[in-house]
Design goal:
This protein is mainly alpha-helical. It has two domains: 1-199, no CATH class; 200-290, no CATH class. It is 64% helix and 3% strand. It contains 13 helices and four strands. It has helices at 2-8, 10-54, 71-94, 106-120, 130-142, 173-186, 192-199, 202-213, 219-232, 239-244, 247-257, 263-275, 283-286; strands spanning 144-146, 150-151, 158-159, 163-165. It has a two-stranded antiparallel ribbon with strand order 1-4. Strands 2-3 form a two-stranded antiparallel ribbon. The radius of gyration is 26 Å and the shape is globular. It starts with a helix and ends with a helix.
C-alpha cells in the first residue's frame, strides 16, 4: 500500500529515495573522529596517572628509623597493585587497536603499561598473570599488524589497508626504550637471542649513549640497561659499537662512582667491562651471569 502511494506521488518517492541515500554517510564520518578523541583523552589521563601516581613506587618495607610500614601505607600499596592487575589484561587487549590510533599516542599508552608493571614488582601478583605478561611482551617485541578494520554496518563492507604499530622497533627513541624495559620484564628466554640481535645496532647504542649522559637517570632503569649491555658485551661484533658511541667510557665512569651497596649494578658493570677487555677478572666479574 505504501509502495502504491509512493508511485502515485513522485515528489514523495523522491524524498524517500533522498532519505535512504543520506542514511549511509551519517555515522561514517562520526565514528572515527570520536574514537580518536577518546584515545587522546585517555592518553592524557594515562600520562597524568603515570607521572604523579604509578611512578611513585611504594615498595619500601620499613619507614623511618627502621620502623615497620604503617598499615595504611601497605593498604594503599595493595590497592594500587590490585588495580594494576585488573588493568593490564585490558591494556594488553587494547594493543591490537594501536595501529588505528595516532602514533603519537603510543608512548603514553606504553608508559602506563611500564609503570603498572613496576608497581607489581613489590607484590606477588606476577604468578597470576603469566599468560597476560607473555602476550604483552610478545606484542611489544614483535609489534602489532592488522589486516585492516572491516566494518559491515554499511551497505557495502569496508576494509582498510593493513596497518602496523611498532613499539620495540619504533623510530621514536623514548617509545623504543620503554618497550625494551617491558620486554625485559615479560619476554621469556626463548626470545633472548632475537632480542639481542635487534639491539645490536647503531640506533640502540646511540640511545644508550644519550641515556647514560643524562644527569637524572633512574637507578632501576640503569640496572635494567646494565643487564642488556652486559649481554650485548658478550657478542664480539658489538665491541666496535661500544667504542663508537663511547658507551664503554661512560660505563667506566659509572662504575667508578657507583656506591658498593648497589651490588647488582656493580656486578653487571664489572662483567660488561671485563667482556670488553677493559678490566681484569675479579670477584665481582666472576660472580656475574655467565
Amino acid at each position: 500500500m505504501t509502495i502504491q502511494r509512493l508511485k502515485g506521488n513522485p515528489h514523495a518517492a523522491h524524498e524517500a529515495k533522498s532519505l535512504k541515500q543520506e542514511k549511509v554517510p551519517v555515522s561514517k564520518p562520526y565514528k572515527v573522529p570520536l574514537n580518536g578523541q577518546v584515545y587522546e583523552l585517555l592518553t592524557v589521563f594515562m600520562d597524568w596517572i603515570s607521572d604523579h601516581h604509578l611512578s611513585k613506587l611504594k615498595h619500601e618495607e620499613s619507614g623511618m628509623d627502621g620502623e615497620k610500614a604503617l598499615p595504611t601505607f601497605a593498604s594503599q600499596r595493595n590497592d594500587i597493585q590490585q588495580k594494576c592487575v585488573k588493568l593490564l589484561p585490558v591494556m594488553t587487549e587494547q594493543l591490537q587497536w594501536m595501529p588505528f590510533v595516532n602514533a603519537k599516542l603510543h608512548e603514553p599508552f606504553v608508559k602506563f603499561i611500564y609503570w603498572s608493571l613496576r608497581q607489581l614488582d613489590a607484590g606477588t601478583q606476577h604468578s597470576t598473570m603469566t599468560s597476560t605478561l607473555r602476550r604483552l611482551g610478545e606484542d611489544i617485541f614483535k609489534g602489532v599488524v592488522t589486516k585492516g578494520l572491516q566494518d559491515n554496518s554499511f551497505e557495502h563492507s569496508v576494509e582498510s589497508k593493513p596497518k602496523t604499530a611498532a613499539f620495540f622497533k619504533s623510530s621514536s627513541l623514548p617509545l623504543r626504550f620503554l618497550s625494551t624495559l617491558i620486554v625485559l620484564k615479560t619476554v621469556t628466554q626463548g626470545f633472548l637471542q632475537p632480542f639481542l640481535e635487534v639491539c645490536s645496532c647503531s640506533l640502540f647504542f646511540r640511545t644508550c649513549s644519550v641515556l647514560l649522559r643524562g644527569p637524572k637517570l633512574d637507578l632501576h632503569i640503569l640496572e635494567k640497561l646494565s643487564i642488556i649491555l652486559q649481554k650485548l658485551s658478550k657478542i664480539k661484533s658489538n665491541k666496535k659499537l661500544f667504542e663508537l658511541f663511547t658507551v664503554h667510557l661512560m660505563l667506566q665512569e659509572i662504575q667508578r662512582t657507583t656506591h658498593p651497596e648497589h651490588a647488582f649494578l656493580c656486578i653487571n658493570l664489572n662483567s660488561t667491562l671485563f667482556n670488553l677487555g677493559l678490566t681484569k677478572c675479579n670477584s665481582l666479574a666472576a660472580s656475574a651471569n655467565p
